[in-house]
Design brief:
By secondary structure, the chain is α/β, with parallel strands linked by helices. It is about 45% helix and about 20% strand. Strands 1, 2, 3, 4, 5, 6 and 7 form a 7-stranded mixed sheet that branches.
Length: about 240
């Protein structure tokens, strides 16, 4: 190899090394930037947490909001879900303003309402309420609304509302009593959990399944990505870990 070729090869090697170092520096910078994106879930629902983890999102913290969920007079189910989701999100957002670690976080909140016609069926607290809820849904098609509200670190809020139609089989007395005895109804909108034993009661579902569980995933990803939250980067990280 003559001197000119050797010099060219050496320069080419140096260029590759510089490019590699630059790429590594860019990756490190990107990872540091990504690390500054925090997400607070304004709920302590294990179902919503599991759904987020399913799509590769792990909230930095849980800050459930305690608000009055009583429907207003004449308030329709969809409007109720939207009002409560926004109230939860803003309550949690205000709560983290005094936390240095979370004051620049995104806040995600959701509320799910089950309805038959214009009648909202909330989360029954007592056994008789749960029995009445199941009786109202038995053999009928009902709607499940989930409103999702995202508040950005700057205080902007965005919302999506999803409707799913669910038909339950006609439930006999033994089925209702046995289901109530298992306790799965507690804390569930409409008094049942589609992801649990009550899945055996579902004849038909039209729309988002995750919406009925409590968090419509397509809409959640759309909201987060639309505000610049690095959802896809989390997926890439998971792929590297699994590799």
């Amino acid at each position: 190899m003559n001197f000119a070729k050797a010099l060219k090869a050496s320069a080419s090697k140096e260029d590759r090394q510089k490019q590699r170092k630059s790429s590594e520096k860019d990756d490190a910078t990107a990872k540091r930037a990504i690390a500054t994106y925090d997400l607070v879930l304004a709920s302590e629902s294990p179902r919503r947490l599991a759904l987020l983890e399913q799509i590769g999102i792990e909230p930095t913290a849980l800050r459930p909001a305690s608000i009055d969920e009583t429907p207003k007079k004449g308030e329709r189910p969809r409007s109720l879900a939207q009002r409560l989701a926004q109230a939860k999100a803003m309550a949690s957002y205000e709560r983290i303003r005094d936390e240095d670690r979370l004051k620049n976080a995104f806040v995600l909140a959701a509320d799910t309402v089950v309805s038959v016609g214009r009648l909202s069926i909330g989360k029954p607290e007592y056994l008789d309420e749960a029995a009445n809820a199941l009786a109202a849904l038995s053999g009928r098609t009902h709607k499940v609304y989930t409103a999702v509200c995202l508040v950005t670190p700057e205080g902007r809020s965005r919302m999506r509302t999803v409707e799913t139609r669910v038909r339950l089989k006609r439930l006999n007395r033994q089925e209702i009593e046995s289901y109530l005895a298992c306790g799965e109804w507690r804390g569930k909108a409409g008094g049942y959990a589609i992801q649990g034993i009550a899945g055996a009661f579902v004849q038909k579902i039209v729309g988002s399944y995750s919406n009925v569980v409590g968090l419509p995933l397509i809409e959640v990803v759309g909201l987060l990505v639309g505000e610049g939250f690095p959802v896809y980067f989390n997926w890439l990280n998971r792929a590297e870990v699994d590799a």
